[in-house]
Amino acid sequence: MLFTVRVLGIRRTGVDMDLAMAMGVAMFGLFSASTAYFLHKLKG
């Protein structure tokens, strides 16, 4: 839902930059989560 709203909202200007930023944030989030999970499993 949020992603749809974001995509519709950025159609006016800077679409490429906003998409790149969204992708970067998403990839960073996935990387951080997987790293935290891996370290948690490593400890336990």
Helix percent reads over 70%
Molecular shape = rod-shaped
Total count of strands: 0
Mean pLDDT: 80
The share of residues in extended strands comes to: under 5%
The main β sheet shows up as: none
The string of secondary-structure elements, in order, is HH
What is the count of helical runs? Answer: 2
End-to-end C-alpha gap: 36 Å
Rg, alpha carbons: 15 Å
The oligomerization state is single chain
Task: Specify the structural class.
Answer: mainly alpha
Low-pLDDT sequence parts: none
| Number of structurally distinct domains | 1
Written description of the protein model:
- There is one protein chain.
- The protein is mainly alpha-helical and 44 residues long.
- It is 84% helix and 0% strand.
- The chain has one domain.
- It has helices at residues 2-9, 15-43.
- The chain is rod-shaped, with a radius of gyration of 15 Å.
- The protein starts with a helix and ends with a helix.
